[in-house]
Amino acid sequence: MFADRARIFVKSGKGGDGHVSFRREKYVPNGGPDGGDGGKGGDVYFEVDEGLNTLTDFRHIHKYKAGNGEEGGKKNCAGKAGEDITIKVPEGTVIKEAESGKVITDMSGANRRFLLLKGGRGGSGNQHYATSTMQAPKYAQPGQPAQELELLLELKVIADVGLVGFPNVGKSTFLAKVTNARPKIANYHFTTLNPNLGVVDLEDAKGFVIADIPGLIEGAAQGVGLGHEFLRHIERTRLIVHIVDAASTEGRDPIEDIHAINKELAAYDEKLASRPQIIAANKIDMIYEGDEDPVEKIRAAFESEGVPVYGISALSGKGVRDLLYAINNRLEEIGEEPLTFEQEFFPEFHFDTENEPYTVVYDEAADEYVVEGPRIEKMLSYTNLESEKGFKFFQDFLKKQGVLTQLEELGIEEGSTVRMYGLSFNYYK
Q1: Residue 155 and residue 159: Cα distance in Å, rounded?
Q2: Within 13 Å of residue 339, how many CA atoms lie on the same side as its CB?
Q3: Which of 72, 100, 183, 333 is deepest in the core (most CB within 10 A)?
Q4: Tell me: the pLDDT tens digits for 167-193?
Q5: Cβ distance 163 to 175 under 8 Å?
């Protein structure tokens, strides 16, 4: 069975405790401390596996844990480090923090391996605590605790083109005609329950990957039917191709169908509705002569909005070649920049900086407000301030940490400059 969502628990390894011991040698009855350091706990990695295309394995195994570091030993012997664990996922898997739903990482494009959780640092043995006044320390540092998270994994199909349309409009027939995919085809609703991927090869052209997204129904964006499961697969596509039954063989109005599907796309994600589109008016072989040409009616309704319409018969192949080259040309215009999901949740920051200090002061000489501290520095290093989402995330962080409140208490005014580690911002409420 195809599985595109999974919920799992992951935990890094605990750092090993430092050891307390003293040298005991012949003729050295009161040797100094020789307790070794604890071993580092194992890290948790995620890695793309080209051989995987579903999240099925995670339905059977829900917990993943790296090894703990061993305690230090006598004679300055360090404890063994805990084993790292690597969790393999298919390309296109988006990893989210389960409670907040925020993205931790997107395992696609150049991101083939990702360090999710660091193991705890090993504790120092008592050899490190000897001083001129304390030559026999009976204290060793405990290892750092493990880090743990509950994760939501979502597989979002990576394809250049997403085929959308109501059930039985001919998407599966079209995909089988133009690619190496072999989807099941039958005349009943929800024939296609899993996204089918196929590669379109064209003469004198690069070609592209196309995904047949299962038939949508009205209310899909609210989760009616299998709406959410289907819609998430369209999120990465660069171009959406609507396939409609131009002959209305089931009594449906193709123009109303297109409006209904666009409405579902917008309800799920506004960005989807604004993605470039092409309409394929299918089943033209079933349009009778003498009737008003429904393809022209569809053109009149949508081409003025910049959405081209192509009449095709997926069954006979009529018009299909022209449509494929039109899709290829549109993809070249759009460009190949892959759609990836930006990081919103930072595990390292989440675990390491909760108690770290920061300062907010007014620099009178420079007439600037200065915000500094390990917590601020780490957040700046993790956040992409050039993206709108990243900048908003950083603003929300400053508000949550109380930085904005402290700036206001210092008398900051609109337009004042705030400096953070070489970066300058203007303050506006």
Answers
A1: 12
A2: 18
A3: 72
A4: 888 888 888 888 765 544 333 333 334
A5: yes
